[in-house]
UniProtKB/TrEMBL annotation:
It comes from the Bacteria. Keywords: NADP, Oxidoreductase. It is an enzyme of class 1 (oxidoreductase). The keyword Lipoprotein does not apply. The keyword Nuclease does not apply. This is Quinone oxidoreductase 1. Its EC number is 1.6.5.5. GO terms for molecular function: mRNA 3'-UTR AU-rich region binding; NADPH binding; quinone reductase (NADPH) activity; zinc ion binding. Residues 10-319 form the Enoyl reductase (ER) domain. One of its GO terms (cellular component) is cytosol.
Length: 322
């Protein structure tokens, strides 16, 4: 089969397209021919060696496709089923062996590119609202990178829960997308951000600051959060937040900081199926509009990484095999 391999740690140029052996499904696994493969920030962190990984390896953890064969001891998944997953290994490939217990059925009406690129961000948005933080209806939240993959979905889910949403974006096109997703106020990054957030919240600040940008935004997140509020630091698109003196949380207003990761909110298969069912159900019903902003051929994965890292993307990013 054709696949992308990370040959060594480094920039997008270390992603190489070539031919490798087909995977063979182990007991409990199904073999899936991929239709659409999601490109996520975590793929870039692993590629650069910011998160531990050992080259050479096939990157990617989410995709959608059709089951072409099943291994031994597989119940409930059959050849021909359309499935998607968020924690499958080696997903930048034409064929992927996926544990049957982690393969989620794709509901009718959900396109391949949405199923293949929205689950990781969608389930992240889901646990950010119901898992790592617990904003209540009527609360105001701040969402950085409001036009990004997570940002557009998180904004829509937050509005469905009755939250008031303030987002940040870097440009006019992104501002329009964030507004269309339901953001009540769309702001630009910068030193005045916290002051603007405070003036929109009668001086109080937000109940939760959702920060997937990291190094460049963390200080403003801290300064924008209300007394007893929470900062959910869930990513590092601009780089990791430097070491931090916990005593500052006291002075800033008895704040909580959490640094969650999706894996811990879907490790239990029932929890995965609950979150995936709610998210994909809302997509299938048309209640959540997923913007697949960029399509690339699988062979052009390096270009996809480069665009994601240079912040020129909006919504989700997908690779199409063949
Ligand atoms: P996005 O589509 O949101 O892309 C990142 C966005 O961050 C950019 O488009 C850009 O938007 C903004 N940004 C601000 N500063 C920078 C910078 N210096 N370099 C790059 N981007 C910058 O990505 P995703 O939706 O895929 O992911 C968003 C974040 O969520 C990432 O940090 C990712 O690691 C994290 N994540 C965490 C998970 C978890 O469980 N912890 C799971 C999934 C994602 P703008 O131009 O508007 O500023």
């Amino acid at each position: 089969m054709r696949a992308i391999q990370v040959t060594r740690h480094g920039g997008p140029e270390v992603l190489e397209y070539g031919t490798v052996d087909d995977p063979i499904p182990a007991p409990g696994e199904v073999l899936v021919r991929t239709a659409a493969i999601g490109v996520n920030f975590i793929d870039t962190y692993l590629r650069r060696g910011l998160y531990p990984s050992v080259p050479p390896y096939i990157p990617g953890s989410e995709a959608s496709g059709q089951v072409v064969s099943v291994g031994a001891e597989v119940d409930g998944v059959a050849v021909g089923d359309k499935v998607c997953w968020v924690d499958g290994p080696a997903s930048y490939a034409e064929l992927v062996a996926v544990p049957a217990s982690r393969a989620v059925p794709v509901p009718d009406g959900v396109p391949d590119d949405v199923a293949g690129s929205a689950m990781l961000r969608g389930l992240t948005a889901h646990y950010l609202l119901d898992g790592s933080a617990h904003p209540k209806s009527g609360d105001t939240v701040l969402i950085h990178a409001g036009a990004g993959g997570v940002g557009l979905i998180l904004t829509q889910l937050a509005k469905r829960r009755g939250l008031r949403v303030i987002t940040t974006v870097s440009g006019d096109e992104k501002a329009a997308l964030s507004t269309a997703a339901g953001a009540d106020h769309v702001l630009r990054y910068g030193d005045a951000l916290a002051e603007e957030v405070r003036s929109l919240t009668d001086g109080r600040g937000v109940a939760v600051a959702y920060d997937g940008v990291g190094a460049d935004t963390f200080e403003q997140s801290l300064a924008s959060t209300a007394v007893r509020g929470t900062i959910a630091l869930f990513g590092a698109a601009s780089g990791p937040v430097p070491p931090f003196d916990l005593q500052r949380l006291n002075a800033a207003g008895s704040l909580s900081v959490t640094r969650p990761t999706l894996a811990h909110f879907i490790a239990d298969t029932d929890e995965l199926r609950w979150r995936a069912g709610e998210f994909l159900g809302a997509v299938a019903e048309g209640d959540i509009d997923v913007r697949v902003g960029q399509h690339y051929r699988l062979a052009d994965a390096a270009e996809a990484h480069s665009d994601l890292e240079s912040r020129s993307t909006t919504g989700t990013t997908v690779l199409i095999p063949g």
